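Board notes (copied after class):
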Amino acid sequence: MRDLKRNQRKLHYSLYERQSEGNDFDVLDTVAKYSAPVEFRASLSDGKSDAEDSPFGKDVSYDRIISTVNKALPITETSLIWYKAKPVFHADGSIDASSADYKVAAPPLDGLNGVRIAIKKISKPVVPQDDSKDQEEEDTGTVNDTTEGAGTAGNDDLEDW
């Protein structure tokens, strides 16, 4: 396995450290704590390989593969990866795990000359950019209700339902 510098991308990884309890009264209120992100360089595949080449098995769902000759990387299947996004920190200095782009999907494959790591894209919630219109409607009590006109001209066939 060759690892050309021109094919390498700048990435960050963060290792899972422990579960931290957020609220003493709620057992289910735990938060995963991760180490500070560490920068590394490695080759990153464009997308998932085809069905004929399944090095991680057919049951593992992954989007990309990190390949490197650096066998000293401590990345495990509980690690987080940042590629396009930048790591974000909380006010207390801890890492915001939700800022990561990818999570490791399977245990890394340790070969004779290198390591391959399957990673899965973390889906992010889509938040509307402009909430001012919604806030104005709540304040004034004016809401555009499209169900009011049901049963009027053009919608007579829905009236029987």
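Comment from the instructor: The chain has one domain: 5-121. The mean pLDDT is 77.
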